[in-house]
Specification:
mainly alpha, 3 domains, two-stranded antiparallel ribbon, 6 helices, 2 strands, about 50% helix
Length: about 120
């Protein structure tokens, strides 16, 4: 079996048979030029890429074959950006809150609620 492995720069691709290719790859690895890519590393790269693309965690769970979403999020949760600030911005202005001007509670047996009711009544 012939494989195109590399270009010699002058005459185009160099044809190598499987034995020569095996020896060439071994030499490259021995000298630290080429590292073996493990299947598991490709799996992590795939999941990381999907997360960076904003894909739904449930889709990623299915693609990775995880039984539970907790497995996926436990393994890759650190890759999700912290979106608390964006969520807070979206929620701003949705709820209108008005502070109480007077207390309607008549329950003061707890020291903390008694202090609260007195300060509300004084205002």
């Amino acid at each position: 079996m012939d494989l195109v492995a590399l270009s010699n720069g002058l005459h185009g691709p160099v044809q190598m048979d499987s034995v020569a290719l095996f020896l060439w790859i071994g030499w490259l690895r021995h000298h630290g030029i080429l590292n073996r890519i493990k299947i598991h590393a490709l799996r992590h790269s795939h999941a990381s890429l999907l997360i960076s693309m904003g894909e739904n965690p449930l889709l990623i769970k299915e693609r990775l074959g995880h039984e539970k979403i907790q497995t996926t999020l436990g393994t890759y949760g650190h890759l999700y950006p912290n979106t608390n600030l964006e969520v807070a911005k979206k929620l701003t202005g949705i709820l209108q809150v008005q502070s109480a001007t007077e207390s309607i509670a008549n329950y003061t047996s707890n020291q903390h609620t008694a202090i609260y009711h007195r300060t509300v009544e004084e205002k």
